[in-house]
Amino acid sequence: TDGLSGTLPFELQNLTELHYLIVEEGTTSGTIPSEFGTFPELIILDLNFNNLTGSIPEDIYNLPLLFQLDLNDNFLNGTISSAIGNLENLQFLQLEVNKFTGTIPETLGNLPNL
Q1: Is residue 17 classed exposed, middle or buried when 0-12, 13-18 and 19+ CB atoms within 10 A define those classes?
Q2: SS3 of 108, please?
Q3: pLDDT in single tens digits along all 114 residues of the chain
């Protein structure tokens, strides 16, 4: 689905077998709910080209099967946690055009498929 507006509902956490969450190129605003880090089967989290703010919730870095994390072209801020190194299956990462501060975590270098 694309072109959505409003905020991302935390109630999506009830979709325990969700594999793909793609909400791109819309006017979706607010923060990324920390509950999104509880999807045990999530492979793709694609929220690019929206108006999302806040930081990346720490729980996102614990998604065991995450292959693609695409959060570019938003208004996300804060630092990118070193916990990003927990995403052992990550092969695609886009975080550009945000308001992140700090350095790129060295743990990214530990991801064998990135």
Answers
A1: exposed
A2: helix
A3: 456 678 888 788 888 899 999 999 989 999 999 999 999 999 999 999 999 999 999 999 999 999 999 999 999 999 999 999 999 999 999 999 999 999 999 999 999 998
Length of the chain: 114
Q: Note the pTM of the prediction, 2 decimals.
A: 0.92
Q: How far apart are CA 112 and CA 45, in angstroms?
A: 19
Among 19, 29, 109, which Cα is nearest to 68's? 19
Half-sphere exposure of 80 (CA within 13 A, CB side): 20
Round to whole Å and give the CA distance between 111 and 7.
31
Helix (H, G, I), strand (E, B) or coil at 77: strand
The tokens of 96 are what? 């550009």
Q: What's the one-letter identity of residue 7? A: T
